[in-house]
Amino acid sequence: MHKDIAEILFTEEEIARRVGEIGSAITRDYADVAEEGVVLVSVLRGAAIFMADLARAIDLPVEMDYMAISSYGNGAKSSGVVRILKDLSSEIAGRHVIVAEDILDSGLTLKYLLKNLSSRGPASLTVATLLRKRTLAQADIDCAYVGFECPDQFIVGYGLDFAERYRNLPYIGVLKSEVY
């Protein structure tokens, strides 16, 4: 797998440090609701590793929940047309919800997800994304917590995949173009 990586963008150590910083910021920002804590929500499967590490970096009560969604498009790009395959198990009305996102690319799927979650009446709803690609066509989404800005390239590792491979790489790298 490592031979398929053109360049390492963020090392295992850099990711751990940055996730820790985001966890500390969330702990600080939600200190006034420390007793009730927060609900972390991730979309399976890409963000699961980020969310697990982020949960351990937050010094508050944390509930974790997951959604599975299918986004239809041409395969490489999302159309923003979304179907929920697995919904939340938890009630989020009146709770502080943080969506843990692996990568903000077009933002179309995330925009739909935020609208859907917002309709359920959470006390607050915010986004923590590990990676944010800066693209011209990106939907306007306010992310309270951003791990790293990254180039508009095909990125894998630390939960991000190509054809369900490379998720288990401990770093984030650019996949060689001849692989995909």
Report on this structure:
- It is globular and about 50 Å long.
- Helix 1 (12-29) packs across helix 2 (48-57).
- The strands form 2 sheets. It has a 6-stranded mixed beta sheet with strand order 4-3-2-5-6-7, with helices on both faces. Strands 1-9-8 form a 3-stranded antiparallel beta sheet, covered by helices on one side.
- Strand 2, helix 2 (48-57) and strand 3 (62-73) form a beta-alpha-beta unit.
- The protein contains 3 helices and 9 strands; from the N terminus they run E-H-E-H-E-E-E-H-E-E-E-E.
- It starts with a strand and ends in a 5-residue tail after the last strand.
- The longest helix has 18 residues, at 12-29.
- The relative contact order is 0.21.
- With 180 residues, the chain is an alpha/beta fold.
In short:
By secondary structure, the chain is of the alpha/beta class. The protein is built from three helices and nine strands, in the order βαβαβββαββββ. A six-stranded mixed sheet has the order 4-3-2-5-6-7, sandwiched between helices. A three-stranded antiparallel sheet has the order 1-9-8, with helices on one face.
